[in-house]
Amino acid sequence: MVLLMYWKMGLLAIIVIWLTEHIQKNSHGKRKNYGLNGIHDHLAQYKSKSKSILADKQGKSVPTIASIIQSKFALNKNVLPEEYKLKLKDAELKFYNIFVNDIYELKHTLLICKHFDAEKTEINIWHEIEHIFHSFNLSFGDNPITIDQGPNTIKALSLNDETRYPCLAHRTNTVLETTWENGKNMNVEFKNFCSSVSDLRTYCQQCGGIQFKLPKTLKRTSGTRPWRSYFLILDSLHQSYESLMVLLRERDEQHRLLQIDPQLLYEISKFMENFSLIFDNLEFSNRPTLQNVIPSYYRMIELCFIDNKRKHSIINLLKAEIAKELDEKYLTSTTQLHWIATYLDQTFKDFCLLKMNLF
User: Fold this and answer.
1) Cα-to-chain-centroid distance, residue 188
2) Whole-angstrom distance, CA of residue 6 vs CA of residue 291
3) 99 and 245 housed in the same domain
4) What distance in Å separates the CA atoms of residue 84 and residue 82, rounded to the nearest whole number?
5) Are residues 320 and 220 in the same domain?
6) What gap in Å lies between CA 147 and CA 163, rounded to an integer?
7) Following DSSP, what letter does each residue of 30-73 receive, concatenated?
8) Whole-prediction pTM value?
9) Residue 105 belongs to what domain range?
10) pLDDT tens readout for residues 259-294
């Protein structure tokens, strides 16, 4: 779908750049699959699969009603305890089709969502993916796949040499989480700061009569992105710091703020706010994000500029770690397609007017 999208825009460059790679064979004598199968080959494969599936259905006996009926149940996952939510999440397999329409809107189609409680090995995952492809008459290699960095899923797709593009929103999430953990391991002051913030948050939530008196309630979690919790709790604590100090003094609990430096709290919350906005640009649900990958990298690197006047500050430590992780985990996951998408995006082009007297 991605290649087709840019083909409509006249991008012959993709074919030129990748054609030499596509015709090369690997050590097993197979051509590496970059989703560049010809349209006639694709239609031929589709018709062949349709005929074989139809023949199989006609050759099989009609199942009895008793064999079709299975016990089923419906539930609202939001009312379940957290442990059961995680178990259900681990046992489900979702398969999406994502495409761009003529007015450049990103569309999502859930092709299938099924129970998958088998062992999560690469061969089991590949068999499930293969079954889904066959059930929708999809040809392997014509549909580039985007996933996170799950090792078993990566191995599963490598069994058939499928085209896989890493999700750079996941990569950004990994960069920030790794930075946070490294920072706590490298700096005792930062570790104590994080522990104090976590303990204070727990205290305020368990102790009635505090949260609703604050300008902004202290956040706890942020759904699927743990690093956002760091930003949300620090931002809400920064905005409520003065009010919280008064409330804690009334309870003789002001010692809970001793290791939370208000200046550091402000600096980290403002610093992480920039990454929250960048992350949103990589996680848009209604617009393509491929063209945002490369500019996002350079913007994040720019934010990590080290202030030499404060060489040993915690902020500089976080900046240095983020820059290092970006080069190791983010930049290495980018491809030629990301650069091409950025080049073609009109919003990144800037033209200046030339004065006639310059000629």
Assistant:
1) 30
2) 11
3) no
4) 5
5) yes
6) 11
7) PBP--S---HHHHHHHHHHHHHHHHHHHHHSPPPPHHHH-----
8) 0.67
9) 1-10+80-166
10) 899 999 999 989 988 998 888 888 776 788 888 999
